[in-house]
Inverse folding.
């Protein structure tokens, strides 16, 4: 796979300005990244900038805590797609997972997947808050819900992606879903380790540095 297509070029910080987002879109087009990943408010702007290109519009849903209602997540998904989102990155209900309320976790993902239709869904499980047993269980639920990806992290919790977690997720989904690593991927060496561990996509705001370093 073309190296640049591993990357979701990401800007999710609360104080991101219009100019910041426009600059990100320009970089993504220049480097032909997989997507530009933004909060819902910026979806229309990004869709306008990327129209006609091979770079996808990716919008986060239920971000960053995953603790809102399923109905709210489904509506947020529908609105994002209306605004031009071509990929959705949702956060699971982590509290329900901790409660072992697996039916709630599953139905939460299923509802967003239904709202997605043919739009690709990545499910953020926030690995830093989970035991290995919980990581395995939620990966199984992601597969059951027929989401396309399971994703490590929001980048807004206690830590981000690790090689261990990526490898565990990859082995658990067993080819029935893909794996996205995100959170703390700030250099070429780390990016390479995540890919070697099994990541099919990387989410990072340090994309330009990583790609430039890859050419050295």
């Amino acid at each position: 796979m073309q190296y640049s297509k591993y990357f979701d070029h990401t800007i999710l910080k609360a104080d991101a300005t219009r100019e910041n987002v426009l600059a990100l879109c320009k970089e993504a087009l220049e480097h032909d990244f997989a997507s530009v990943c933004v909060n819902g408010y910026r979806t229309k702007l990004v869709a306008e900038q990327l129209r006609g290109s091979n770079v996808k519009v990716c919008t986060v849903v239920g971000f960053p805590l995953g603790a809102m209602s399923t109905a709210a997540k489904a509506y947020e998904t529908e609105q994002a797609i209306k605004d031009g989102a071509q990929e959705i990155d949702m956060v699971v209900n982590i509290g329900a997972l901790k409660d072992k309320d697996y039916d709630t976790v599953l139905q939460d993902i299923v509802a967003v997947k239904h709202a997605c239709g043919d739009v690709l869904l990545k499910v953020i499980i926030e690995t830093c808050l989970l035991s290995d047993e919980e990581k395995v269980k939620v990966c199984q639920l992601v597969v059951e819900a027929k989401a396309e990806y399971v994703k490590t992290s929001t980048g807004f919790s206690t830590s981000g992606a690790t090689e261990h977690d990526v490898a565990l997720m990859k082995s658990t989904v067993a080819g029935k879903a893909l794996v996205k690593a995100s959170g703390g991927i700030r250099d070429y060496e780390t990016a390479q380790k995540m890919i070697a561990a099994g990541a099919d996509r990387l989410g990072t705001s340090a994309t330009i540095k990583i790609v430039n370093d890859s050419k050295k």
Summary: DSSP finds nine helices and eight strands in the chain. The CA atoms of residues 116 and 169 lie 23 Å apart.
